[in-house]
Specification:
Blueprint lengths: L2 H16 L1 E3 L4 E2 H9 L5 H8 L9 H13 L2
Antiparallel strand pairs: 1-2
Helix pairs in contact: 2-4
Bound molecules: FE2/S2 (inorganic) cluster (FES).
Length: 74
């Protein structure tokens, strides 16, 4: 199983349980949305604030989608 398959499998399991988007750092969607609400507008600043995407990086596209979605609500 490659890194991406492993990520997708673990993310699905954890997203169902508690909304974890970043499996490596156990960062939830809620935490990412909160960081955007607090003024983080780019992946890099959300990564710095929450640690999402700071390990294997497989969650980056999903984190970016959440940021985009949250910013579109403003
Ligand atoms: S899932 Fe590995 S850094 Fe987010």
């Amino acid at each position: 199983m490659d890194k991406r398959e492993l990520y997708l499998k673990n993310r699905k399991k954890q997203a169902d349980i508690d909304g974890v988007v970043c499996v490596c750092k156990q960062v939830t969607e809620r935490k990412i949305r909160k960081a955007v609400k607090e003024g983080k507008r780019k992946f890099v600043s959300v990564k710095r604030a929450t640690e999402a995407g700071s390990s294997c990086g497989m969650c980056q596209p999903i984190v970016e989608d959440i940021i985009k979605d949250e910013l579109s609500k403003k």
